[in-house]
Amino acid sequence: MKDVYIGLGSNLAHPLQQVLKAQQSLSELPESDLLASSKYYQTPPLGGLDQPHYINAVCHLRSQLSAFELLEHLQQIERQQGRQQGQHQGEPKAARWQSRPLDLDILLYGDEIITAPGLVVPHYAMTERNFVIFPLLELTPDIVIPGVGRAAWVAGKLSREGLVEIAGSE
Fold first, then answer.
1. What long-range pairs does 153-157 form, CB within 8 A, spacing at least 24?
2. For residue 170, what pLDDT is reported?
3. CA angle 4-165-84, nearest 5°?
4. Does residue 122 have a cis peptide bond before it, meaning omega lies within 30 degrees of 0?
5. CA distance 12 to 10
6. Element (H or E) spanning 15, and its range?
7. At 164, is the pLDDT very low, low, confident or very high (cuts 50, 70, 90)?
8. Where would I find the H helices in the chain?
9. Residue 167 has what pLDDT?
């Protein structure tokens, strides 16, 4: 079993409901257990794009699925919730940062470092994103990001600016 952390984000089609539905789908993954979910946060879109704000969260799973099997399941959940093809890691920034009903990213997969077409773990930009690091620390305060170090150290370099906790999401 691997400890896996998944980033969830949505800014279209009732974003909070999209994230809640995705969490339910994560709890139903085969050979996996959903252990915990962070609070929900409203955050501005990346890159200063003119888009609605996002709802973001992080979930902690324990899974026997391989990273690539897990990725397939996550992409299936995204498609079921209205995400269009071609909006995944490896796409140009303009495509990656488009509005979307749901974005699910494997942030961490155990202590593995994976660099493959379509999958980079730890997530390629997680150390730059307050909406990933702070919720991650809620779930596992002493977590280490492979190849980087303690997430708490990373958090010390990030601002909480724009990260707004949604009331009642505890």
1. 154/127
2. 60
3. 55
4. yes
5. 6
6. helix 15-27
7. very high
8. 15-27, 67-80, 93-96, 130-139, 151-155
9. 76
Distance in angstroms (rounded) separating the CA atoms of residues 65 and 46? 30
Q: List the catalytic residue out of 105, 111, 129, 142.
A: 105
Kindly state the tokens that stand for 94: 């303009």
What's the rounded mean pLDDT across residues 116-140?
96
Length of the chain in residues, anyone?
170
Q: Looking at the predicted structure, is the pLDDT value of residue 87 above 60?
A: no
Rg (CA), the chain: 15
151-169 burial string, b = 16+ CB within 10 Å, else e?
beebbeebeeeebeeeeee
Structure tokens that stand for 97 in this block: 């940062």
CB 105 within 8 A of CB 123: yes
The single residue of 3, 50, 79, 103 carrying the catalytic annotation is: 103
CATH class of the domain whose range is 2-165: alpha beta
Q: How far are the Cα atoms of 39, 64, 110, 140 from residue 170, in angstroms, in the given order?
A: 5, 28, 25, 15
Catalytic residue among 79, 83, 96, 160: 83
Of the residues 100, 111, 142, 160, only one is catalytic, namely 100
Q: What is the DSSP letter of 48?
A: G
The tokens describing 131, both together, are 């909406």
Residue 2 Cα distances to 32, 40, 71, 92, angstroms: 9, 24, 14, 30
Query: Would you call 105 a catalytic residue per the annotation?
Result: yes
The Cβ of residue 3 has, within 10 Å, a number of other Cβ atoms equal to 16
